[in-house]
Amino acid sequence: MFGIGLPELAVIAFIAVLVLGPEKLPDFARQAGRFVREAKKLADGARDQLRAELGPEYADLELRDLDPRAFVRKQINEMIAEEDILVGEDGKLHQGTPRQRPLRPGEKPPYDSDAT
Q1: Helix %, strand %, coil % for the chain, to 5?
Q2: What is the pTM of this model?
Q3: 74 or 38, which is more confident?
Q4: What single string gives the DSSP state of each residue in 30-86?
Q5: Does residue 116 sit within a domain?
Q6: Is residue 17 in some structural domain?
């Protein structure tokens, strides 16, 4: 959660006790809990409204799916996971990764003028 570990939480709690005092700390924790619950309700409401407006084809939409980095990562992982189906020199379908054959004597390597 937010990259905060146990040592950081301990330091924050210690500073909160020093600043707020032990008398006001329970009230502050109660208010912080209410704020977190309200923020979660607001986020859930926004997600539900977005799903309702986009229609049934986006019913499984998660807000984290809208993050471009997560979207690209998901697409790359799907591409890696699916098996490649290749057509071999014999015209038959083969599964797996393409194998490169060595060049025959006198054969020039493939060249793409658009790639340079």
Answers
A1: 60, 5, 35
A2: 0.44
A3: 38
A4: HHHHHHHHHHHHHHHHHHHHHHHHH-GGGTT--GGGGSHHHHHHHHHHHHHHSPPEE
A5: no
A6: yes
